[in-house]
């Protein structure tokens, strides 16, 4: 017996036990509403999606082709339409997630207006967006199931048993649109207590995976900008512990922590790590700080900061800002140390922020990490901050140069030029770009591929195209040809925007509640009927 059928029976028994007071309650309608609202709290969602992610991680460990993907979504509607689209085109949402980007929260959701990615936005906006995303995903469940229930009722009225059975199968085998969200908590928005409090709010809203980075919270920068400042490992591990405690307190025992290192591009540190003995974690961190050897203590000035590195007295290179510089060329070594340390101290997945999408570079670091932690896995940012076209054309150029291939027809510094689009190099670069996720997962330990802010760009591009035509010579044809006609022909559900917003669900509920006296919106004068 299906869950829906069980619910009908159970609610019927409950109604009958109440006597005539509940005579207006239709058990089928109540069971239908229950089916359309499977998740009652954010914690229900966090527990459900954490289990999905853990299963996906285990599947990837056995087969690297089973990597996962997501797109960053800055509004609940965008996340909903992404999930509906994936399900429509591929039949399932398996191994597909949502990403909540701190960059997009700052740029698009702050009450201060558009802000840079520097943790200046209201931190409560992050859990609010998680809740919003899941509200829209749950509504997608209700919307799709509502159509199936309508199909079943129409088939019953027509006496079509085969159609009833088909609709029932759709309901019984329904796959929810509620999928995991990897949520960006930046550098924790303060000290470890602040990180814990915000993590709790995010988990309560439904987050099963929280990504945290090793930058200094109050001078946090976007991973693709200059001026990044990292913290000693002990401070970062305290915040990893804070997130884990938040998961445990909320009962999400298999919650996922993604530890992000910005050390590849971060040349600065605010603090010298505490070290108790040579070779400990603090000493390793400090060994990367730039300085000059001092032969005589008399050379030390009043404001100098001096430590021992490899048994030598070293005056650290200190900037006017009070920050210390790391030695040039130490970025990869620091990344590897960060990652090993995080995984050995509570993190589940890694995020290495790189300056370009290069499988060999990423794989080289992961190989080193896996010598210490064999099942190390990455969440990787397929970032819009990369010039993907230029990067991959230059990678192909460099590979061909190593092979001794004639490159006289190409200018490496100008490979973005349109003249190279139809060349052999341009086509091979496009193939490498297309295969980046597959190759990165097979050769560089990338479990999850995400694009942080794609829908920021798609919203801008589509709006530009519509505005260009509508306010220009095309007028209304710009919308009809560029939007509505495509929606109709490509089966985009939003063409019936009233239905997508819940009009039919509301009509059905009115009928449940008011029966024949219900005032419904979906009659013959509803212009939505023009779309079939």
UniProtKB/TrEMBL annotation:
The keyword Protein biosynthesis does not apply. This is Isocitrate lyase. The active site is at 222 (proton acceptor). GO terms for molecular function: isocitrate lyase activity; metal ion binding. One of its GO terms (biological process) is carboxylic acid metabolic process. Mg(2+) binds at residue 184. It catalyses: D-threo-isocitrate = glyoxylate + succinate. The keyword Membrane does not apply. Can also use Mn(2+) ion. Substrate binds at residues 101-103, 223-224, 260, 381-385, 452. It comes from Salinisphaera shabanensis E1L3A. InterPro entries: ICL/PEPM (IPR039556), Isocitrate_lyase (IPR006254), Pyrv/PenolPyrv_kinase-like_dom (IPR015813), Pyrv_kinase-like_dom_sf (IPR040442). Its cofactor is Mg(2+). Keywords: Lyase, Magnesium, Metal-binding.
């Amino acid at each position: 017996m299906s869950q829906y059928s069980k619910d009908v029976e159970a609610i019927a028994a409950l109604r009958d036990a109440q006597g005539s007071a509940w005579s207006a309650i239709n058990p089928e309608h109540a069971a239908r509403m229950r089916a359309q609202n499977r998740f009652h709290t954010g914690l229900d969602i966090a527990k459900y999606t954490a289990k999905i992610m853990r299963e996906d991680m285990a599947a990837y460990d056995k087969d690297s082709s089973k990597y996962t993907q997501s797109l960053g979504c800055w509004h609940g509607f965008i996340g909903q339409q992404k999930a509906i689209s994936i399900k429509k085109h591929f039949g399932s949402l398996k191994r597909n997630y949502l990403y909540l980007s701190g960059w997009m929260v700052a740029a698009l959701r702050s009450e201060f207006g558009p802000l840079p990615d520097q943790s200046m936005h209201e931190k409560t906006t992050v859990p609010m967006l998680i809740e919003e995303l899941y509200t829209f995903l749950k509504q997608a469940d209700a919307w799709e199931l509502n159509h199936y229930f309508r199909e079943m009722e129409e088939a019953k009225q027509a006496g079509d048993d085969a159609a009833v059975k088909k609709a029932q199968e759709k309901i019984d085998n329904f796959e929810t649109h509620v999928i995991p969200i990897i949520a960006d908590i930046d550098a924790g928005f303060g000290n470890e207590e602040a990180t814990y409090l915000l993590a709790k709010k995010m988990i309560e809203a439904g987050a099963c995976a929280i990504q945290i980075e090793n930058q200094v919270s109050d001078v946090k920068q976007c991973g693709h900008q200059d001026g990044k400042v990292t913290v000693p490992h002990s401070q970062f591990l305290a915040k990893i512990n804070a997130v884990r405690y938040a998961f445990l307190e909320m009962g999400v025992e298999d919650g996922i922590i993604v530890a992000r290192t910005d050390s590849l591009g971060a040349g600065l540190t605010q603090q010298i790590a505490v070290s108790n003995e040579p070779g400990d974690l603090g000493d390793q961190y400090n060994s990367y700080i730039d300085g000059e050897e001092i032969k005589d203590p008399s050379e030390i000035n009043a404001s100098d900061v001096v430590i021992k590195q490899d048994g030598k007295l070293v005056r650290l290179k200190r900037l006017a800002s009070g920050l210390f510089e790391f030695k040039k060329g130490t970025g990869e070594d620091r990344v590897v140390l960060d990652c090993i340390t995080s995984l050995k101290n509570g993190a589940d997945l890694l995020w290495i922020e790189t300056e370009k999408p290069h499988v060999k570079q990423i794989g080289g670091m992961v190989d080193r990490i896996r010598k210490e932690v064999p099942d190390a896995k990455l969440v990787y940012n397929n970032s819009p901050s990369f010039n993907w076209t230029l990067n991959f054309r230059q990678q192909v150029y460099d590979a061909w140069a190593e092979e001794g291939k004639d490159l006289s027809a190409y200018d490496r510094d100008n490979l973005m030029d349109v003249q190279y689009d139809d060349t052999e190099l341009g086509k091979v670069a496009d193939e490498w770009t297309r295969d980046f996720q597959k190759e990165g997962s097979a050769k560089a330990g990338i479990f999850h591929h995400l694009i942080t802010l794609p829908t920021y760009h798609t919203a801008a591009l589509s709006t530009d195209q519509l505005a260009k035509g509508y306010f220009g010579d095309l007028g209304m044809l710009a919308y009809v040809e560029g939007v509505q006609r495509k929606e109709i022909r490509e089966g985009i559900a939003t063409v019936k925007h009233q239905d997508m917003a819940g009009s039919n669900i509301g009509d059905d509920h009115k009928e449940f509640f008011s029966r024949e006296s219900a005032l419904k919106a979906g009659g013959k004068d509803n212009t939505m009927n023009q779309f079939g």
